[in-house]
Amino acid sequence: xxxxxxxxxxxxxxxxxxxxxxxxxxxxxxxxxxxxxxxxxxxxxxxxxxxxxxxxxxxxxxxxxxxxxxxxxxxxxxxxxxxxxxxxxxxxxxxxxxxxxxxxxxxxxxxxxxxxxxxxxxxxxxxxxxxxxxxxxxxxxxxxxxxxxxxxxxxxxxxxxxxxxxxxxxxxxxxxxxxxxxxxxxxxxxxxxxxxxxxxxxxxxxxxxxxxxxxxxxxxxxxxxxxxxxxxxxxxxxxxxxxxxxxxxxxxxxxx
Length: 256
Description:
By secondary structure, the chain is α+β, with helices and mostly antiparallel strands. It has six helices and eleven strands. The chain has a single domain (3-248), classed as Alpha-Beta Plaits. The protein has helices at residues 33-44, 51-58, 114-125, 164-170, 178-189, 240-245; strands spanning 3-10, 13-14, 24-25, 61-68, 71-83, 90-101, 104-111, 158-160, 195-201, 210-220, 223-237. It has a seven-stranded antiparallel β-sheet, sandwiched between helices. Strands 2, 3, 5 and 6 form a four-stranded mixed β-sheet that branches. Residues 250-256 have low confidence and may be disordered.
């Protein structure tokens, strides 16, 4: 049995850094493996220095579908009274911080450890620690996993007995804005079928793949370590079926 976990990542702001150092904190254009492992670790209540338990999460294969490309934004943070490297005084440091505005992602995790996937799915809905997308202030705008009854709050489908690639192709579109639905349906009627960008973990020998140094080995303070994994960029068609399945349902009287 192939078991996968489908999550919705929707927030006004998200940040997924790989090479953030010193005064420049960048972000990638989709969630990183280290960021998702940290997210699930927070949900499960795993301390950052428990590398053994976090490594079990990191073994899950990960795929991302970009349901709405984010807008890259930058702001500046000022920190005062920062000790100098020589230890002779203090200084003011200005850092540049990049983030994605209005991004929307479908994240799918697949693995052989069905019990841990099930435990993670439960924890996501009742997290031990608050969940955030890259920074503590970047909170989810809607549940990561939807409630079957609350289908007007379209979110991730949760646990699915399907391979990762199948879910990326078949999961309902997470976009909830009605005018965007109408725009894409009109485009399809005119023969202009849109696509959704994907980024899927793959073997290193896969043709066209690229490396990402975001597979976490340790999150411990002073000992943050990562190794390289391989991902393949692709696309899936945005069909009428994906759009209609994701259309928010109007609340009926019995649901109020």
